[in-house]
Design goal:
113 residues
Length: 113
């Protein structure tokens, strides 16, 4: 059974940085494509970044150049480095294994102006 635990969220001022982590278990992590999503209040959940098992990455236009997704297969962990944060980045951030319906509890990111 897949289990995902997100951490690293918090309150930060606009222009600041945060690094989110997602620890995965119950799957062969190194062979899986991993996603980071976010959901702001009153909005639909949206895909923010993706990293394949080969390390190829893709980003939503709204975060390109500011966010970086990476993975450490030895630690079964995927990261999201978020720089130059904006108030509109405020959301609950979730990681997800592509092809699985399981969602973790998410981690709250709040960016103050």
């Amino acid at each position: 059974q897949v289990r995902l635990v997100e951490s690293g969220g918090g309150l930060v001022q606009a222009g600041g940085s945060l690094r989110l982590s997602c620890a995965a278990s119950g799957t062969i992590f190194s062979s899986k494509t991993m996603d980071w999503y976010r959901q702001a209040p009153g909005k639909q959940r949206e895909l923010v970044a993706r990293i394949t098992s080969f390390g190829s990455t893709d980003y939503a236009d709204s975060v390109k150049g500011r966010f970086t997704i990476s993975r450490d297969n030895a630690k079964n962990t995927v990261y999201l480095q978020m720089n130059s944060l904006k108030p509109e980045d405020t959301a609950v951030y979730y990681c997800k294994v592509v092809g699985y319906t399981y969602w973790g509890q998410g981690t709250q990111v709040t960016v103050s102006s």
